[in-house]
Specification:
The chain has about 375 residues and is α/β, with parallel strands linked by helices. Helix content is about 45%, strand content about 20%. Strands 7-6-8-9-10-13-14-15 form an 8-stranded mixed β-sheet, with helices on both faces. A 5-stranded parallel β-sheet has the order 2-1-3-4-5, with helices on both faces. The chain has a two-stranded antiparallel sheet with strand order 11-12.
């Protein structure tokens, strides 16, 4: 009898703490929002994978005290404003503590309004429209650059490096693309490049012959393609080459995606684009690359920013010892560290800035070509 009692006491000492610790263990829930279906699915999947990589790094380093695991709830926005709002509401119901996303500015802006009602921090790795951070939302942060940084850098490049005197601009009427195109038009006028036309196509179009015929007839030094995602950009580049458009093609950060070159093939050769500079030789980038590439393949446009955005959120939670939004914001605003994409430090409005440089596509690679401060890089 005594042995049975002793055995029961011993097992009780083992099981009770185990049961209690199991009951106390919690899952830290974070969300992501990006297009996982449709024409922008590659970019959206890159964002999700960047977040997953950050989670993996944190869990390998011991996780976050008080939580047994970190779980990502990835939502598909399809770059549709209504679907983005629905995704935001779903994440609210799932009780996530922060959201990485979205991709299209037209999705990020309405979704952030919904998340703001519940004081849920949102960190976008990809939305560049100025209004993302200019609305005064207290928990809206941005890891990538802004259109009003990119447009002047692009105009300066076209004027000083390419010697452009005239330009024809095309956009697809989306919040991101038209906003950037309007900025390009203004910046070109500021530096003395004459805008010979600014025309529009529709999101989802596949036949660009009408606008490219106009571009060919106008024969400006530059045809600037401001389009949402690599797919329409690749199609436009192919059709421009087929139709014999002789103007130099210049485009923007949405084309900084290996699939742009996979689709456009030889039509991509010689195209210039601007993108926020990331040094691939830093220890932080290399550490990210060593984990990301074996699992997910080549690093594309916004995977690195998504990784840094998730890192910021997780660092803030760990430092604050809390998921309280005000405490998280206080920790985020203190941050000053080297991320995989750049030096991470936030301004009062939630922006973190970006240095845009120009790349040239050569032999199927994005080759750094021009820097606003250094000039030609090759």
């Amino acid at each position: 009898m005594k042995k049975k009692l002793l055995k029961a006491l011993v097992w009780g000492c083992v099981l009770v703490p185990f049961i209690l610790s199991g009951a106390a263990a919690k899952t830290l829930k974070i969300g992501s929002m990006s297009p996982l279906t449709g024409p922008y699915a590659s970019d959206g999947t890159d964002i999700k994978n960047g977040v997953l990589t950050a989670i993996e790094v944190f869990e390998k380093e011991g996780g976050i005290p008080g939580y047994d695991k970190i779980e990502l709830f990835a939502q598909d926005t399809a770059c549709d404003p209504k679907q983005a709002v629905a995704a935001a509401n779903k994440l609210i119901n799932l009780e996530v503590v922060g959201v990485i996303g979205a991709y299209c500015s037209s999705s990020t802006i309405p979704a952030s309004e919904t998340l703001a009602e519940e004081d849920i921090p949102m960190l976008t790795p990809a939305s560049t429209n100025e209004m993302v951070t200019d609305r005064g939302l207290p928990y809206m942060f941005r890891l990538c650059g802004r259109d009003d940084d990119q447009a002047p850098a692009s105009a300066k490049f076209m004027k000083e490096s390419l010697g452009a005197k005239t330009i024809f601009i095309i956009d697809d009427k989306t919040t991101y693309s038209q906003g950037l195109a309007d900025g390009i038009e203004k910046a070109c006028k500021d530096v003395g490049i004459e805008v010979l036309g600014h025309d529009h196509v529709n999101q989802g179009d596949k036949d660009f012959s009408a606008v490219l015929t106009k571009a060919k007839d106008i024969n400006a030094d530059i045809v600037y393609m401001s389009l949402q995602g690599y797919s329409p950009g690749a199609l436009m580049a192919i059709q421009a080459k087929r139709m014999g458009v002789s103007s130099t093609l210049v485009t923007q950060d949405a084309m900084f995606q290996p699939k742009f070159m996979e689709v456009a093939k030889e039509a991509a050769e010689g195209i210039y684009l601007t993108y926020g500079y990331t040094d691939p030789n830093t220890p932080e980038y290399k550490a990210f690359e060593n984990i990301y590439v074996p699992k997910y393949g080549p690093i594309a446009a916004y995977a690195t920013y998504a990784y840094d955005a998730a890192t910021v959120l997780l660092k803030a939670i760990k430092a604050a010892g809390s998921t309280d939004p005000a405490k998280l914001k206080a920790e985020i605003m203190k941050m000053d560290f080297n991320g995989a994409s750049k030096r991470i430090k936030f301004r009062e409005n939630g922006d973190s800035g970006s240095t845009y440089i120009a790349f040239k596509i050569e032999n199927g690679k994005f080759v750094p070509y021009w820097d606003p401060q250094k000039g030609l890089l090759k």
